């Protein structure tokens, strides 16, 4: 029986997706955590914890260094809320172009017998522009960005995309009408709207800064529904005050940008739809079961991707540091124990490596596992037995 502990309100569709041999919230000493936005930085990681799955794309609420040192694989569910975020971005594009919130606020504050006459006379102050024919720069064309590019193209916009880390798989989803920019500066050079869809890391923090904003056309509208901190809010406020930026739309509040008429802040609702939460929970449950039962790694944020068909009777998975001679030490130890390796796969991601070893003969299992765990730089060793299909 595998033990799963949840934090936050996980969609019932995800909880119902677990097989009967998975128990939910019966112990704090769980094999895996299924979470959303809970902050795990102060959390004490039990030694039994093998996996954490975040229902959503972001994972800055998880201390990856602590998880790795504990031998815990961390996963997210990229793409599960992509459509929800895309729809909100498109809604914000329309809102910005047509001054919808200002117009609605005006209408709500006006009443009386002459309202129709005054409205006809004063409504021109809310005149906007159509999106068709305007240029949108999409910074990051992965799961969300590619969908935004598609939808904006359908609205008649010219779309320019920039993504230096675009995977071959994601490239298939970019519309053929999207112009691919060679540099970030090229992407924003003629943009009426700039929308960012990149993960937050050391390279993307304050990616949209004063220097880049100065290279954007006068009157640009900036949208950030990716992560707080990718846009330098101080630089945006200065550009708004100078009239260089017309409007800023974001899903991430900050005292510096609040209470401004030229800024619209939503309360981090990009992925908050019933469908997105269900998608993330189901994908999260699938990720947990796949990893615990097969050891295969997909969508991990601290381990390399490694998928190997589980055809043998036994499987050893070893999470270890990415240093010389680790694979050699492991193979030598297996040979000393008369273990015949049917297949062995290894992959690395930065300072962490992961090995999958399949075999049909495994004697003295407890003693072998103990010996493997005694190798310096090994984080976790697991023994899996293939389930009959």
TrEMBL record:
Q: Which Pfam families match?
A: 2-Hacid_dh (PF00389), 2-Hacid_dh_C (PF02826)
Q: Is Oxidoreductase one of the keywords UniProt gives this record?
A: yes
Q: What's the Enzyme Commission number for this chain?
A: 1.1.1.399, 1.1.1.95
What catalytic reaction does the record list?
(2R)-3-phosphoglycerate + NAD(+) = 3-phosphooxypyruvate + NADH + H(+); (R)-2-hydroxyglutarate + NAD(+) = 2-oxoglutarate + NADH + H(+)
> Which branch of life, at top level?
Bacteria
Describe which pathway this protein belongs to, using the record's wording: Amino-acid biosynthesis; L-serine biosynthesis; L-serine from 3-phospho-D-glycerate: step 1/3
Mind telling me which InterPro entries this protein's record contains? Answer: ACT-like_dom_sf (IPR045865), ACT_dom (IPR002912), D-isomer_2_OHA_DH_cat_dom (IPR006139), D-isomer_DH_CS (IPR029753), D-isomer_DH_CS1 (IPR029752), D-isomer_DH_NAD-bd (IPR006140), NAD(P)-bd_dom_sf (IPR036291)
Instruction: Report domain ACT positions.
Output: 315-386
UniProt keyword list:
NAD, Oxidoreductase
Q: Which family does it belong to?
A: Belongs to the D-isomer specific 2-hydroxyacid dehydrogenase family.
The job of this chain, per UniProt, is described as: Catalyzes the reversible oxidation of 3-phospho-D-glycerate to 3-phosphonooxypyruvate, the first step of the phosphorylated L-serine biosynthesis pathway. Also catalyzes the reversible oxidation of 2-hydroxyglutarate to 2-oxoglutarate.
User: What name does this protein carry?
Assistant: D-3-phosphoglycerate dehydrogenase
Q: Which organism is it from?
A: Lacticaseibacillus baoqingensis
> What is the phylogenetic placement of the source species in the record?
Bacteria, Bacillati, Bacillota, Bacilli, Lactobacillales
């Amino acid at each position: 029986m595998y033990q799963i502990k949840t934090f936050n309100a996980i969609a019932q569709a995800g909880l119902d997706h677990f097989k009967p041999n998975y128990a939910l919230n019966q112990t704090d000493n769980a094999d895996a955590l299924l979470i959303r936005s809970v902050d795990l930085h102060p959390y004490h990681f039990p030694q039994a914890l093998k996996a954490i799955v975040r229902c959503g794309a972001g994972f800055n609420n998880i201390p990856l260094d602590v998880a790795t040192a504990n031998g815990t694989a961390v996963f997210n569910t990229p793409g599960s809320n992509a459509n929800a975020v895309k729809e909100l971005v498109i809604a914000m594009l329309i809102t910005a172009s047509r001054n919808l919130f200002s117009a609605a606020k005006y209408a709500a504050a006006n009443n009386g017998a002459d309202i129709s006459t005054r409205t006809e006379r004063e409504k021109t102050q809310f005149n906007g522009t159509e999106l068709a024919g305007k240029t949108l720069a999409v910074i990051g064309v992965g799961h969300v960005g590619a969908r935004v590019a598609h939808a904006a193209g359908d609205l008649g916009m010219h779309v320019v995309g920039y993504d230096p880390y675009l995977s071959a798989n994601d490239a298939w989803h970019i519309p053929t009408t999207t112009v691919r920019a060679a540099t970030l500066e090229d992407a924003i050079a003629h943009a009426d709207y700039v929308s960012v869809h990149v993960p937050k890391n050391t390279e993307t923090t304050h990616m949209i800064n004063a220097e880049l904003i100065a290279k954007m056309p006068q009157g640009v509208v900036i949208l950030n529904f990716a992560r707080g901190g990718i846009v330098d809010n101080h630089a945006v406020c200065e550009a708004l005050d100078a009239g260089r930026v017309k409007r800023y739309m974001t899903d991430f509040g900050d005292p510096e940008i609040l209470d401004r008429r030229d800024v619209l802040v939503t309360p981090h609702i990009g992925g908050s739809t019933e469908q997105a939460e269900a998608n993330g929970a189901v994908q999260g449950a699938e990720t947990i079961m796949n990893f615990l039962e097969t050891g295969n790694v997909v969508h991990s944020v601290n381990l390399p991707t490694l998928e190997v068909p589980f055809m043998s009777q036994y499987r050893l998975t070893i999470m270890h540091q990415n240093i010389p001679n680790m694979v050699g030490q492991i193979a030598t130890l297996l040979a000393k124990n008369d273990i015949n390796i049917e297949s062995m796969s290894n992959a690395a991601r930065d300072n962490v490596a992961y090995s999958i070893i399949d075999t049909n003969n495994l004697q003295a299992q407890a003693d072998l596992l103990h010996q493997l765990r005694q190798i310096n730089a090994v984080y976790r060793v697991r023994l899996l037995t293939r389930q009959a299909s």
